[in-house]
Amino acid sequence: MRLFKRLRRKLQYLSDNQISQIHRAYLTALAAHRGQRRQTGEPYITHPISVACILADMRMDHHTIMAALLHDVIEDCSIEKSDLEKNFGVEVANLVDGVSKLTQIEFVSRAQAQAENFRKMVLAMARDIRVILVKLADRLHNMRTLSTLSSEKRYRVSKETLEIFAPIAKRLGMRDLSVELEELSFAALYPRRYAVLKDAVQKARGNRKKVLALINKTLQDGLEKNQLPSCAIIGREKHLYSIYRKMLNKKIPFNEIMDVYAFRIIVDDVDTCYRILGLAHQLFKPVPGRFKDYIAIPKANGYQSLHTTLFGPYGLPIELQIRTTEMDRIASSGIAAHWLYKSDDNELETTHVHAQKWVKNLLELQKNAGSSIEFIESVKVDLFPDEVYTFTPKGAIKELPVGATGVDFAYAVHTDVGNNCMAIKINRQLAPLSTRLANGDTVEVVTSSSARPNPGWLDFVITSKARSAIRHFLKSQQHSASIILGKKLLQKSLREQALSLKKIPDNVWFFLLKETRFKTVDELMGDIGLGNRSALVVAQRLQILMQEQQAIFSGETADFNVAERAPLMVEGTEGMLLTFASCCHPIPGDPIIGLLKPGKGIVVHVNDCKSIIKFLQQPSGCIPLRWADAVSGEFLVSVGVVVKNDRGVLAILALAISDAEGNIDDIHVDDREGHYYKVTFQLFVKHRSHLARILKNFRQISQVVRITRAK
Q1: Looking at 61, 76, 259, 377, which residue is catalytic?
Q2: Which of 700, 570, 688, 703 has its CA nearest to residue 639?
Q3: What is the pLDDT of residues 643-655, one digit of tens each?
Q4: Which of 113, 232, 276, 462 could form a disulfide with 107 if both were Cys (CB 3.0 to 4.6 A apart)?
Q5: What per-residue string of b and e applies to 451-471 under the rule 16 or more CB within 10 Å gives b?
């Protein structure tokens, strides 16, 4: 109860009924996590309570607080989503499920797991933006308690935070949360650099007081003299990661960064922002090209402010930000301000709309991405924008990253406009498609129904939307081309069998698709066109199926489903003569390839068999194969064992084979040389795992020196 009291004090903005529901969620989480402990040694429940407190400070609604308390129960406990729906409603259950990782799926790599979990979270965000707020609060508390983890895990979590979660917080306008995530990640990734930079900043801060006081007084005196409304003038501190990144990117020393003095002026209304800007330009000379009006043209995350750089006292540069109180709230809290300062303010609503628009773009990206890893890489590109603001001929603003080209602009207008882009006009002048756009450019896209994306565009486009849309189109085109090629190859092979595609009845296609596990004939043709399946093998199988069908109609006893009754060894070879190569003895589980040989049908080899190297350059003779999911029977394999010349060793080896349920077909013993000799066994095994058990038994025999499998 002591833990809940900490949260209860932060929930004064909610009704008693809502707090009661939150308490019920707390009791469920407490029971679910009972006995679990964090790496710090604390009870696990302290984590969801801390996450809920972070969200309570943002004044989030009671459903979000409940989801925060329950956010790990699906992933780490025996509670199902259906249980949460029953006890707390669909809204809370969907939020918890959106934050939960895909623990029940086994991934090939950690990168794939990260990418798939991120894709799942994006889909949940599209339904409810609060999912990402719970996830960010969860990550923030994990970063605050990072010190107890191993160095390897600390590095991995910090890197992921810096690459994905801190930029997402920034993209949603949540500056304060983003800054804290960056600082914690920087300290964990580069502890020595962090310590040195922190010490240098503290020393430099003492020398700056006099200059800061002088600039502050000059600004205050100017406001009074010009009878402008009173406002707050705050000396703005640069955080350590921002300094480090600037030193790294601009290759400038620490003292040059610390020579820049930054101030923020907070006023009551927009009109006063521009009046104070005029005063600042009178008091100190502005640096040319360093003025940005983010009030007239807000950033993609809804951020608004006036930015200007001035020549201050002693020629020192001053960075000045001027904004209203509402703008400052949004700059600090971003989308969270939608809940933190509930009002009819249009600026808060605009921030929420910006966030929803970004999530919608993410959804479009994930639809076009070929894989989850490609998707997450595209998102990383999208998360680091320094914007340029361009215009359509009708004056609509398009925000694009610095370095964006005419093609990026075309895809920003619409995917179809990008796909049909033929030429670009920049400020009414024709320009190459690869031209980099600048602030204020008016861009017109010239389209044609016959124009198509060019693979060369991938060399210069930089937006993730353009890149994923181009790749998606090219893949679709490749698939169409492979279907056409597959039909041509199969038609050619059928002609040799005195058949044609038009003569194949639908029920024959039905059985062939069932055997090959394709849904449509086009999928089968595409597989042939890509070289994954031999047209000759498919043609021969079609001929056999046709003959079986004719036998049924003529009253013979041939069974049209004979292939289903026969034990299936290798997929793609149904009904064909199959031989297993004696040079490499492939067994189920080995990667395999087939060679077409007259009189032998398909000869199956292991992929790395030396005898097939010369045939790999002849695609028409090589057939990619894979074992069927359920293979029965025994397969011959050759195993060589070098053993010490001890009495009874052959009997020990034979016993090891018998214990693993293997059968010996033949034994060959090389001439004895000194203390060692080689025994070659021809064994019958069921699959690679069965062989592995036999080899494991061999390794436990003290007289065994070396084991090799003949390939």
Answers
A1: 76
A2: 688
A3: 888 888 888 888 8
A4: 113
A5: eebeeebeebbbbbbbbbbbb
